[in-house]
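User: Predict the full complex structure for these chains.
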Amino acid sequence: MRIDKTQRGWAIASVAILVVFTAVYVAYAVHAPEGPRGDSALGLAFGVIGFGFMMFAALLGARKRVPVWRIGRAQAWMRGHLWLGLLSLPAILFHGGFRFGGTLTSVLMWLLIVTVASGVFGAALQHYVPRVMTADVKLETIYDEIGSVRKLLREEADRAVESVCGPLGIGKSVTEEVLRAGGLTAARAMGVTSSGTVVAAAAETVVLSEEECAPLRKFYLGEMRPFLEEPKRRRARVGNAEKALGVFSGLRTLMPSSAQPTLQDLEDICDEARQLVRQEQLHHLLHGWLLVHIPVSLALILLGAVHAVMAFRY
Amino acid sequence: MAAGTSVFDAARMNGTPIPTLCHLQNETPVGVCRLCVVDTGARVLTASCVRPVEPGMKVVTNSEKVLNARRTLLELLMTDHPTPCARQEQSGDCELETLARAAGITQPRFAKRTVSRGIDDSSLAIAVNHDACILCDRCIRGCNEIKNNFVLGRMGKGYSAGIAFDLNAPMGDSTCISCGECMVSCPTGALTNKTVVGTTITAGPDAQGFEAEELLQLPVFQGVSGTFLELNRGAIVKRRFHEGEIICREGEFGSTAFYILEGKARVSLSAPIAHVKTQGGAKGFVKRLTSTLAARDTDARDEEVRDRTIPIDASVDLAYGNPVAELGPGDLFGEMTCMNFYPRSATVIAESDVVAFEMLRNVLDIMMKNKTFRAEIDQNYRRRALENHLRGVPMFADLSPDFIEHLKESVELQRFAPGQAIARQGDAADSFYLVRIGFVKISETYPGGELVLAYLSRGDYFGEIGLLGGGVRTATCTALDHVEVVRISGDDFRDMVERFPSVREGLEAVAAERSAQNQQRLQTTQSLPIDQFLSQGLMEAQSLLILDLQNCTRCDACVNACADAHDGITRLVREGLRFEQYLVATSCRQCRDPLCMVGCPVGAIRRRNSLEVIIEDWCIGCGLCARNCPYGNINLHPFDVMVEDLERPGRQKAAVKQKATSCDLCTHLKEPSCVYACPHDAAHRVDPRTFFSKMLAGGGKK
Amino acid sequence: MARTRTTKKLAQRVDLNYFKRPTGLKRAKFWLSVGLPALALVWIAWHGFSRDSRVYSSGRMSEAHAVLEAECTACHVQTAGAFSAKASDTACLACHDGPIHHARQISSIGCATCHTEHRGRVNIVATRNESCATCHGDLKTSGGADHFESGIHDFEDGHPQFAALRPNGGAPASDPGTIKVNHAIHMKPIRRGPNGPNVQLVCGDCHQPGAASGAWIYADAQYTAASTSSSPQDEVLPLGKERTQRPRPLTGRELMAPVRFAYACAGCHSLAFDKRFDEGVPHDKPEVVQAFLVKKFSEYIAAHPGEMRVMRDPGRDLTGKPIAPTARVLTQTQWVRERTAEAEDLLWRKTCKQCHTLSYPTRDAGRRIPQSIQPIDESSNIRSTAGGLPEIASAKITLQWMPHARFDHDAHRGFSCVSCHEKAMRSTETSEVLLPGIATCKTCHAPGPGHAESRCFECHTYHDWSKRKEIKPTFILPELRTGGR
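Assistant: Here is the predicted structure of the three-chain assembly.
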């Protein structure tokens, strides 16, 4: 999501609300006997408004669970969440007169600060990271499916190498990707070639001799395949773009010309695997902040409700 | 020696075999290969197969000179020969290679030709490899002299000379009847018998094989080449089915056709005749959206044709209200499945004990070219299905029965091969067509491209615009696969129109509507600059779901929304190719050229004038449309239904039936749910030409 | 063997139900979202079950109530059955009395309005100016317009000049005291002091804080030892009761003690009446003085009978009246009478008048009867003055110039007197009020750092302590500390 000029309306409205809040607060605080308090009429008003904003912000999670209900566009809810959530911080600060108070109220204030700060941080991430991801990961896929795509890449690489070197001795996986003529039908062997993967048909197999393809075999089994299995290994040379370039250039000189297309394919597969690693990193960044934002905000709402009730008691 | 005997024969009779390549006993000798040359003491060596004996001739057959000559010839021929050729591999009897081995030639000294003469894979029965052809002329003589089919001939000159079928058509498209004579005569692997997938039908316990002679006794097999049947023995089988046995099930994939010899069978659809309707609480707060199957009486959609018949792959069509019909002796069903590998369109159950032939494509192909068989099929069609088809055309509904009878007799059944044009835009219009079987593409050409207006299948008709409006075709009609049409001649048509004015009105109304639609579509395409960002086929789309990757946070809200709106099955996948900063998601594109519609065995997928793809109630869930869609936009949605248990009649059992689904633009919710549910303003449903028009107008790629 | 990518191939890599499957991120999100609020709930429940409400406190207690930090129920008394446990005024009044400010105030306000607890370890009495300004910013009293200033916001804004210095009904402010004092003369070097010439008086020689036991340089033993018959009403104006009843005890050094003749004046101002005697008359009422005189003279003449023969004093013949005989022989009584009259004449007309304000009820009161017309009647009593004794106006010394404010001289002991009371150096009139004006106070007492406290509570108090009621003590110590358990 970009904070761009389509958000102008909300931004202006929010600034206006903030200005009004500030004006009201200043006028109140200056004249209040003993200063602003949370339980004076205005203090309560700020508290209720602030909590109302927080509740609306929290409801975004619920809204996302019923995306089809026509209760307002998801976009409007999202913008409301951003701007009203942001406004909840000054509202609560005004409510508490910029004091942190006792144990519960201090905890609440910190929770609110953490929530709003993580939210702002997350909004910034969501502003920048999609662009980075789009630029860096040209071969992006769906994050949840990275595991199975990696497996397909492994199989493709296996086939490519085997077309040149002969059998590698790697057991074929039983769960070959099912041909999905629609995702839910079982595979039907119709005589149509199974083309479920981005694969080149292992057509003309020009198998090299044992000796000729030894470098490729060694490289593949020793470096590339382990990398495709567990890309987070630090030591893999193919995990780094420049090093991979060097490795493959070296291989190109060692292997005969008939293996060159295969080498190119392998290089492309490595590149795709690297991009998937990058995608994982960026995805974790893009979504990881939610692991702070959401639980803290839920705790905030819960304790806020407790505070509201208990403050009336005392 | 009798006068006129060739030297070759004389030598043979004397027990001296002379090697040949182009000479066959039963064919006129031509002397082109020169392998049979002998030294008769003349200035040059003579070809023994054409030279008649003369008295006092002294023939030397294995002098050094002669042997050298033979060896050189063989070596030269072996240079271009694709060793080992198909014949050598299949049966080990490539004559050229045998001779070469005998002469001790292993590695020719000469360079191989650099340009391949190609292979021709179009015939169902015979594989043609021009690289192995030594231009010995045996096949031509066999086809002309022995079988009198006159299909083969020579073409080209010099190094590009070769054999040709008809006027150099691919063999499968030519008038070749696959009798197999050429293949049998060919000395090398240039013409070999094709191993078709599943050539041998697994013979079940009730299957009976039989000898070719037996088959040839049947009237329908008259004229079919015995050799061919011999060679394709495993491709046709006689089966017996007991009463109540299921012969084939709808939706299954198969590769065989059935021809009933004896008995009666019942053909029906067991899929629920209902379409997928998603309904529920988008406005409400409690009900969730569920997808249910709704039939026409509960959920009528506009533009439905009432009482429409369901076209199936048999000689009859099924009525919408009661999709059951009967097949008897002489009925052929499964033709589309057999020829084009489409899924079975209906379920056939034997009502009495049935004896039927099950045959593969190569056999069926031969049969369909056989005149007797064809005649029978024709007659069946006219008798049983043609009237329904005619009446299925809405404007013909009021025709009187005797006119229908007249039409039935006077219509012509025409076959077209895949890719063949039935009518071209701009030609003089003189016929009206009904499609009996196969798929026809109706398209218009305009500067810059081709716009597909419709795909027509069994029971659809075309050609009336030309007849009504000035006699010039306004669109090109092309056969997509093996198509057979019913042609009503122009005279009959005009006659009909005169006698039945209501027909004329109906026709004119339809014609006017179609004209208007076509105009509208043309206008849209002509008013925009057509640019080539076609590499992804984006211009083919009328509506794209694009995800702006600079806004998208990959949160899957769109996918969740689509799934929620469609009972848990998403019709959108967040994967695909990118265009600029947009990801073109996998979701129905409402293509101008809807390939998904080609091949539906029951004609259940069509498009309204809005962009929405409609899947009719009788979708049998075979998944062909899903396969055909080049973008993977169609998925199958399973439903739990109670169906009649075919193995135990009278009882029902639970089954899972599938219906094809694709993005329906959430018309029941007025706005696509994915767009509605995207929190980041990233999902958009756009018309690519309008959306990218600025970029297009700006000129080319950025 | 180039790798190709098409939409269909890409789409078919993907399982259609991927978004329903859990991933690490989704699981983590779920468990954290359950765990953290659960933790918070457990935390709150823990406090709930251990009946510890301190977590709900909105701040630490003030300095005075720090002992109650752990005992919420000391103030937050829960009425039976109700949910609310607000700290009401009743709780405050269980230990404190907070008398109303003024009978004519329009609304009474709760304790917590000004004394806000839970603001940290602060002085809870240190109320903000706004609390006072709530009423005094725009003062409305029941009973109509009043003489109180109505727009006071703080010391800087709207606080009027001190009442003692303000014109009073048209007349300028004046000191009601009747003892004539010219400060300016006293501050100059004095040519004749009690122990020799040239003394330089300083303020502290006459003015000292009340309870001080410092040395009085100019005291006179005769007078300090003597008791007088005057009562405090004759001397000083009374202190307001609110001063005396306030919770904080007075140190006794807040106000200056009234200047007493015996301690400050007697050293220089002698009350000598006759050259036959060294001592002066008692510093007392005229009756006492007269009795003293008579006694003294009577004792003298009894001891010195020869004096009864009074020689003519030629120095006294200058009046031009008939010349008296050269010597007169008087009786004791007559002699005493004459001498007393002479002394009284001196005293009433000169000595006492120097400082006191005397009033003469008759025309002749206090006037000496001339010798020539004195009756020879011995039986007449010693009543030398014909018109009776003068009346001495009560001194009306003001002890407390700002009855509605607290001023503590002891707090300002670091300053020299003249740094605030510089008017005293130049004051010549008794009526001048030598109280420093508000401007003098404002030089130090102003808001902001680098200044002395200037909030209202520094000088004023809301509660009218003159109406203080005693609280019946009801708590026992452990009760307060443990909330009764």
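Chain B has four domains: 7-193, 207-269+312-369, 388-526, 534-697.
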